[in-house]
Design goal:
38% of the residues lie in helices and 15% in strands. The chain is α/β, with parallel strands linked by helices. The chain is globular. The protein binds zinc ion.
Length: 165
């Protein structure tokens, strides 16, 4: 949920479907923060010459405003809120996410954000490889491609056992 994806002036704006999930995502975050559950923001933070920019326009360059979590969610920063930067779609690739989930004895993960068929789906696959229970609230994920959005939800449910609610 970074400025570059969710805000209309962002470098890789997902579109109006992203606006629609801001409120429900903020509610999810608030609920989990209040319950003292771990909340992790998985944030793209690319080098200016990242290989990914051969496939996508330049976005979420480390240290820029575009790489920051949208202000609507920034208010929820507390002890049990963590930011993990990443350079690929999966939140697990070259990050400490796997270790952190293990250390904190996490069993169930709620996945939210953009884009459904890219970062959400790749992260979901890695969660399934590690046998986590996965919940995806459908009002909290969005995509610039509606067909891929629908396909990704079906695939995550069928292949990864995600509960799409
Ligand atoms: Zn990226």
């Amino acid at each position: 949920m970074l400025n570059d994806f969710v805000k209309p002036d962002g470098a890789l704006y997902v579109g109006p479907t992203a606006d629609e999930i801001i409120k429900p995502v903020a509610e999810q975050v608030k609920n989990h923060v209040d319950k003292n559950n771990l909340v992790v923001f998985l944030c793209d933070a690319h080098a200016p010459d990242d290989k990914e920019f051969e496939r996508f326009p330049k976005h979420a360059v480390k240290g820029t405003r575009g790489a920051q979590v949208i202000p609507e969610l920034a208010t929820s920063v507390r002890d049990n809120v963590m930011v993990i930067t990443k350079t690929r779609y999966s939140g697990f690739f070259k990050t400490r996410l796997g270790d952190i989930l293990e250390e904190m004895s996490v069993e169930r993960v709620t996945l939210v954000g953009v884009c459904t068929h890219i970062c959400v789906m790749d992260t979901c696959g890695e969660l399934a490889n590690r046998d986590y229970e996965i919940v995806i609230p459908r009002n909290c994920v969005a995509d610039f491609d509606q067909e891929m959005h629908v396909m990704a939800l079906r695939r995550m449910k069928a292949l990864y056992g995600a509960e799409v609610v």
